[in-house]
Amino acid sequence: MRSSLGGVGLLGLIVQSVAAVDITWSDPSSIKSGTSEVAYGLVKFYTGNNTGDVPGNLPDPYYWWEAGAFFTTLIEYWAYTGDTTYNAITKQAMIHQAGDDLDFMPTNQTRSEGNDDQGFWALASMTAAEMNFTNPSSSEPQWLALTQAVFNEYVSRWDNTTCNGGLRWQIFTFNNGYNYKNSVSNGCFFDIAARLARYTGNETYAEWAEKVFNWQMGVGFITDDWDVMDGAGNGDDSNCTEINGALFTYNAGLYLHGAAYMYNYTDGSELWRSRLAGLVNSTTRNFFKDNIMYELSCETAGLCNVDQQSFKGHLSRWMAMAAKMAPFTYDTIVPLLTSSATAAAQQCSGTSSDFKGTQGTACGFSWLQGSTWDSKTGIGEQMNALSIMITPLIDEAPTPYTSDTGGSSTGNTEGGSSDSSKIQQERAITTADRAGAGILTAFILAGLAGGVFSVTI
Ligand SMILES: *[C@@H]1O[C@H](CO)[C@@H](O)[C@H](O)[C@H]1NC(C)=O
Ligand SMILES: *[C@@H]1O[C@H](CO)[C@@H](O)[C@H](O)[C@H]1NC(C)=O
Ligand SMILES: *[C@@H]1O[C@H](CO)[C@@H](O)[C@H](O)[C@H]1NC(C)=O
Ligand SMILES: *[C@@H]1O[C@H](CO)[C@@H](O)[C@H](O)[C@H]1NC(C)=O
Ligand SMILES: *[C@@H]1O[C@H](CO)[C@@H](O)[C@H](O)[C@H]1NC(C)=O
Ligand SMILES: *[C@@H]1O[C@H](CO)[C@@H](O)[C@H](O)[C@H]1NC(C)=O
Ligand SMILES: *[C@@H]1O[C@H](CO)[C@@H](O)[C@H](O)[C@H]1NC(C)=O
Ligand SMILES: *[C@@H]1O[C@H](CO)[C@@H](O)[C@H](O)[C@H]1NC(C)=O
C-alpha cells in the first residue's frame, strides 16, 4: 500500500520548485493551461482504462467512493475549462459502475458499500446531469435516473428505530459501523434531494431535503453555531447522544452546498438564507487559516489519512457552486477560494517517482506550506489542487442546468431496488474486491478509540 503520509517524498527534498504550475490568475487562459497540467498529473494515477483493468476503479490505496469523487472532479474540470480530454474515460467509468440495478451498487462493491460510498457516485451523476455532460446512449444508464435511483433507495433506508430518524452509515447489518448515523451519509441524501428538487421542480425532493436537514439539526449533528459534527449512534447509543464532534471539510461542504440549492429553489427564502449564512459562517471560521483552506482535524498535525487527504477538493467545488446559487455569499466565498487557489498552485512543484505527471508539478497536500512542496503526492492531493484551482473561473462556469434551462438527462422516478433482494444475489466476496466502506470505517473507529478527534458528548 502506498502511503501518502510518509516516505514518498524523499526525492522531493532534493529538488527545488523549478517547474511548478505558474498561473497568472487574472488571465483565464493561463488558469486553463495551468489546471490542464494538474489534471494531466491527476489522471496519470488512473488505471481503469488500461486493457484488463476495471473502468471506474482507482488503484490501491484509493477506495471506490473516491473514484466517484474523482469523476465528479473531472466533469467539473471540463465544465469550467471546456477541456474535453477526459470526458470519454469519465463516461465509460460511470456507466461501468452503474451496476445491474442502475443505482451505483455494482456487484463487486455491494457487500461492503455504505450510504456515503454510493452517495459519492450519485453526486457524480447529479453533476453530470446539471452540467449537461454527454448523455449515454438510450440503452445505457442515464445520469438523472441513476441519481433518482439512489434517492429512492435512501428514502427506503430512512430509519427511525434509533435517533428519531436518519440514514445509517452502513446499508447492511453485517458491516462494521451499522449503528453509526453520520453527517456524510445524510449529507449525500440532503444534497442530492436539494439538487433533484431544483433540477426537476418536483416538490417531493424538496420535502425530503427539508426533512433530512431538520433531522440533522434535531439530533445535534448541526450545532447552534452551525458546525457540522461527524455522527453518533455507536454501540447502544440509540438516541445519538454521544456525538463524535470531529469537523471535516466535506461534511460542512455537503450541507453548505445543499442549502445553497434550497435557497435558490425557494427563490431566496428567509429560512434557507439564514441556514446558508450560518453554514458559510462556520465553514469560513473552521476551515480557513490566514484565508487558506485547510483540514482542521488532521492537517497541521500531519495525521490525515488517504480519504481525508481528498476532502478539501469537495469543499472547494461546493463553495464555488454555492456562490453561484446564492449570490449573497459570493463576496465572502470567492476571495477565500482565490487566495486558497494561489496557495495550492504554489504546492504544485513536487517531483516524485510516485507521480507520473510532468515532474516538478506534483501537488502537495498542505496549502499552508507556502512554496516549499510538502513532499506529499497522491490522488487526493492532486484532486484538491485541481478543484480549488478551477474555482477562479467561476464567473465563466455554467450555472448548473435544470430540465427547464438546457439539462437534457432522462429521468426515472421509479429507479432503485430493495436492499434485501440485492444481498441474496450476492456472489462470494473475493480478495480482488475493493471494500468501499472499509477505509471510512477505519478512520471513524480510530477516531472513537481516542485518536486525533475530540469527542463531544
Ligand atoms: C486512458 O485515458 C488517458 C487519458 O484520456 C489516455 O491518455 C490513455 O491513452 C488511455 N489509455 C488507454 C489504454 O486507452
Ligand atoms: C468485478 O471485479 C472483477 C475482479 O476484479 C473484475 O474482473 C470485473 O471486471 C469486475 N466487474 C465489474 C462489472 O466491474
Ligand atoms: C417511523 O417510520 C415509519 C415508517 O416510515 C412510520 O410509519 C412511523 O410512524 C415512524 N415513527 C415515528 C416515531 O416517527
Ligand atoms: C458568525 O458566527 C459567530 C459565532 O456563532 C457570530 O458571533 C457572528 O456574528 C457570525 N457572523 C456572521 C457574519 O453571521
Ligand atoms: C432515549 O430518549 C428517550 C426519551 O428522551 C428516553 O426515554 C430513553 O431512555 C433514551 N434511551 C437511551 C438509551 O438513552
Ligand atoms: C439563483 O441562481 C441564479 C443563477 O446563478 C441567480 O441568478 C439567482 O439570483 C439565484 N437566486 C437567488 C434568490 O439568489
Ligand atoms: C444539452 O445537451 C443536449 C444534447 O446534447 C443539447 O441538445 C442541448 O443543447 C444542451 N444544452 C445546453 C444548454 O447546452
Ligand atoms: C416526484 O417524485 C416522487 C418521488 O420520486 C415521485 O413519486 C413522483 O411521481 C414525482 N412526481 C412527478 C410529477 O414526477
Automatic annotation (TrEMBL):
Reactions it catalyzes: Random hydrolysis of (1->6)-alpha-D-mannosidic linkages in unbranched (1->6)-mannans
One GO CC term on file: endomembrane system
Entry keyword Membrane: yes
EC number: 3.2.1.101
Class of enzymatic activity (EC top level): hydrolase
Main location: membrane
GO biological processes: carbohydrate catabolic process; fungal-type cell wall biogenesis
Keywords: Glycoprotein, Glycosidase, Hydrolase, Membrane, Signal
Biased composition, class Low complexity, residue ranges: 402-421
GO function terms (MF aspect): mannan endo-1,6-alpha-mannosidase activity
Ranges for region Disordered: 399-428
Protein family: Belongs to the glycosyl hydrolase 76 family.
Protein name: Mannan endo-1,6-alpha-mannosidase
Organism of origin: Pseudomassariella vexata
Source taxonomy: Eukaryota, Fungi, Dikarya, Ascomycota, Pezizomycotina
